[in-house]
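This protein record is not my work; I was only asked to verify it. Where you disagree with what is written, explain briefly why. This is what I was given:
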Amino acid sequence: MSTAAVLPDVNGAVLPDISPAALATLMKKPEKAKPSSRKAIEWPTFLSQANQEYTSGNAHVFVLHGNVNDYPDNEAHLLSLRKLMVMAYDENYTAELKTKEGLSVAGTNAGQRGTNKAEARSEKEVPKRICAVFVINEGLRFDSEDSKKLFQEMMSTEYADLIKNKQVPPDFLEPMTFESSRFTLGRWFALTKKRSEFNRSARVQGSTLKPEASLTVVFFDCDIFLPAGNISSLNADRVSIGYMRNWALDVEIGHKNKIFMVTRHLSQLHESLRGGFSKVSAILVPKPTLEDRQAYSENFCRNLAHKCAHLKAAGDPLKINGKVIEAMEFAHGFDHKDLAIQSSGMSRNQIEKAFNECLNRGIAIDDRQIRMVKQRCMEEEYDGIIEFVHPVHGFDQVGGHDELKRYFIQKISKPLRSGDARTCSGGVLLTGPGGTGKTFIAKAAAFDAGVNFIELKLGKLMNKYVGGTEERTEMMFEAIRAAAPCIALIDEIDIALPGRQSGGDSGVGSRLAASMYTFLCDESRLGRIVVVACTNRPDIIDPVVIRSGRLGDVLPVLPPPKEGEASFQGRANILKALASKHKVTFHKELQSSMADSQVGLGRLLLDDSQIWTGAEIEAVLKDAIGLAVEANRDKTVISLEDWTLAMDSIIPTTGMLEDMTDLALAYSNNVRYCPEVYRAQMKNKSQLSVTLQAKGYRVP
């Protein structure tokens, strides 16, 4: 048997199309004593929180936001949030599941107010709990036919005259749009109030009670019809917002009913429905923890192995692209715990996606596959605000910068690996001329620490719509937290977050900067998230950015000096690292030219007429490699001829190197991590100030 795609089945394993004989074997119910039997569903913490708030009378309208598109448990049942909500709040649906699937559900009386069994004279007096979901392409629907029947019978009885006289919409009993759903639900809430009052009097008088039901309504994708924005500019949407506001403030509705709004990002929901005085309780659905991810991985693989064993016993083993699958294959030395660590920030269904991709490609799952899927999923999820970069080099390919490498190893790489918040830097500002390797060093730190590296695209945060920038900023912070442990890079921070003198954006830039400052001050990220910012103009950054507790460490990233032994050694170290990076060697004739300032390597290493940055040295090396390729020579060996032509062609273009170097030294605040050749100059702050002020620069 072969198949081109792997599809999930209802029990959580991945299965292709199979023969009738194999299907019959597969669908046999396992014995209860076997380990493969499904465990009881237990409510996740976010649902327990909602139930507590409801039973205590704090709220009856809730917003579920965050990881709402994920599987809500770790058992790899492929259980959706919709199914979970209906299981929790619809007695009829739960009873059907018990009959059809033998599923055990823990604590079905989740979050109930009003009449209970202790107060009721009989079981019939306890309101039946039913649940309806609104999905924009389906309308208001009941997943249980019995619940649908009860709802429609009660509405038909109560509003018989209106229905008969056609004073209600045609889809009154089974609404298809949000507008008709809010009309129907408005009538339902009026019905429940009326019947509650009637039955209270009937109990006192001992007369017959009217049937009641406790309804939970779940609105999915509610940011579509309850969007954020200025209420005066929302047109038809503001009517829907008004309905939801009033439902949240009407405490009598909450005696028998609950309302859940579901949205991916809370910032996309209208401001008046996010909590506070609205009486709406906002509840975060979190991404799975390390323990959750490990448990999900173990259960997924256990379910897969169980299904494969069933298929094999039926004589029709699972094959994908001709390969028999018996279990999920892990790379040597890579296990469930490693997967849980590498998949930080991923949801369960994204982990499932990584498993399925490896199964389809016939390869073992490893850290590389997890990172690839994670990068793709995160970039799609967060709309290009962040970019995941997979570093391919460590500090062994960083030429020079010994002091800076020591800082990154001691203050960033080691603490991030161990999660040590006490010794880990919260943030560092790297300042110096362009082309000196600031970004390259940050990537090397992420590589050596084995953590994620993300670049923050602050320029993409700005949005022309009101509130759009703030919304995208919150998405960015969410992405950073999801990627932890990580190093987050802000390149050219002087452009992304300029000083307070900038304006012309109606205050949006100031609010963006304030949000960034608040994030940088958040101590909860220590040991998990390190922000590395880069600039060659520290003088135009808002001074509050580089205060202690934010980007408190300001360190210089400088090129080798123009002349002297430090110049020769610095350039030689850079050249050696670049040769390793590009996998090239130097011909013996070229190597012998190091001591001659007029020939070959000596023209670079002994040049005392100008400063050479790492980027400019790399430009010469790459041009020499290109010349060898053009002449059909060995591109892995650089000849004297190719090097000479490259030196004749490449002219250093990095401007204002001396000014940028002086600025870096003036703003840096730790001499220990400054190159030794520049330390005396760094300590002489007064002279640096005089020199820079004379040229019009702001000094600290």
About this structure: The chain has four domains: 46-200+209-285, 293-381, 387-556, 565-649. Confidence is low (pLDDT under 50) at residues 1-38. Residues 330 and 365 are 5 Å apart (CA to CA).
